[in-house]
Specification:
Helix content: 55-70%
Order of helices and strands: HH
Strand content: under 5%
Largest sheet: none
Shape: rod-shaped
Structural class: mainly alpha
């Protein structure tokens, strides 16, 4: 779901950017405002995603090789 949302926001950002670069008149600044809102959403979701991945890495347990147990030492 997160990747779908990111894709949608990237597509909207690209269409807004094309509109701004093509010279579409924006006297009220609505396009630029929407562009900033979309970029804030992208950064927010990317930060959330990065934090969730970081938290998930703390939960993973390291692999323990059974042949390296201390009780096997002579």
């Amino acid at each position: 779901m997160l990747l779908y949302q990111l894709t949608q926001w990237f597509e909207e950002r690209n269409s807004l950017q094309k509109a701004l670069l093509s010279g579409v008149e924006d006297p009220t600044g609505d396009l630029q405002l929407r562009m900033r809102e979309v970029e804030e959403q992208l950064y927010s979701q990317a930060e959330r995603w990065r934090n969730e991945i970081g938290e998930a890495s703390y939960v993973q347990f390291p692999y323990e090789a059974p042949y390296l147990k201390d009780d096997m030492v002579l």
